[in-house]
Design a protein that fits this description.
Length: 322
């Protein structure tokens, strides 16, 4: 089969399209013929050297959709021909992937593989961020960094389902338009404006309930500054750079809650995975949640997809087609 392989960490150029053996199934796995692949920032982080598999070479990617073509031992609830999607299983930048059966979710017959590959990881992430970190009230205010990104656009929509007032940071007029269409109430151009000053001015120095930060080092301290007492700092990504070690007394002044959540901990059982995935898939089918595919490239152009994602030149979801 054809797959993107990585023989050493580094820039996008370390990803090469090669012919490799089709995976052999282990107990509890299914073989999926991949049709469409979701590209996520976690793929970039792994390529750079974070959370690496045990040995090289390895195939990146953690999300895809396709058709089940082989069933492994002790798999009873799937059959050959089933249309499925999955997230959180390494090795999706390929024509075939061996995936633990419990991680797969069925996709509606009338949903395209491209749409299915664009939903699970980011929409389920947005879902637990909006609904499970804390109970938000209609009077609460939230800041979503990178509001025109894949998670950002979905998170804004889900926060508006809860009637939360949403601030968001964006960098261009095009991204501002997309964030506004998603429901953002206040758009802040982070390249020219100071989000800390704007939010503190608008709240009479009282601050806001929650900050969703996928940027990391360059935004973290100011995010703490704008939280109200008992506010939540949700650091779910580090696109700029990891947050360096800091004095926890920074949290003590206002009894701030800090969390570094991961999707796997909010989909840790089959029941929870299906409940969360079914919710977001149903919302898309009903038109309540709009998915934006901002960039679609063939598998062979995976390196270019990473370049654009790292350069913040994308909006919405990035996918690769097989």
């Amino acid at each position: 089969m054809q797959a993107i392989t990585i023989h050493s960490t580094g820039g996008p150029e370390v990803m090469q399209l090669e012919t490799v053996p089709t995976p052999k199934l282990k107990n509890g796995e299914v073989l999926i013929e991949i049709k469409s692949i979701g590209v996520n920032y976690t793929d970039v982080a792994s390529r750079r050297g974070t959370n690496l598999p045990e040995q090289f070479p390895w195939i990146p990617g953690r999300e895809a959709s396709g058709v089940v073509v082989e069933i492994g031992k002790n798999v009873n609830d799937l059959k050959v021909g089933d249309r499925v999607a999955y997230a959180m299983a390494t090795g999706s930048y390929a024509e075939f992937a061996a995936v633990p059966a419990w991680l797969t979710v069925p996709i509606p017959d009338d949903m395209s593989f491209e749409t299915a590959s664009a939903i699970l990881l980011q929409a389920m992430t947005a879902h637990f961020l909006a609904n499970d970190i804390t109970t938000l009230q209609t009077s609460d205010r939230a800041l979503v960094h990178a509001g025109a990104g894949g998670v950002g656009l979905l998170l804004i929509q889900m926060l508006k389902m809860l009637d939360v007032y949403v601030y968001t940071t964006i960098s261009t007029e095009v991204k501002a338009k997309l964030a506004k269409e998603a429901g953002a109430d206040c758009l802040i151009q982070y390249t020219t404006d100071d989000f800390e000053k704007i939010i503190l001015d608008q709240t009479n120095e009282k601050g806001i309930a929650i900050v969703y930060d996928a940027v990391g080092d360059t935004t973290f301290q100011k995010g703490l500054n704008i939280l109200k007492p008992r506010g939540h700092m949700v650091l779910y990504g580090t696109a700029s750079a990891p947050v360096p070690p800091f004095d926890t007394n920074l949290l003590r002044g206002k009894s701030i809650f800090l969390t570094r959540p991961m999707l796997g901990d909010y989909t840790s059982t089959r029941e929870e995975l299906l409940q969360r995935s079914t919710t977001v898939l149903d919302w898309v089918q009903q038109g309540k949640l709009k998915i934006r595919i901002g960039l679609k490239l063939p598998l062979s152009d995976a390196a270019e997809a990473h370049r654009k994602l790292e350069g913040r030149q994308t909006t919405g979801k990035v996918i690769l087609t097989v």
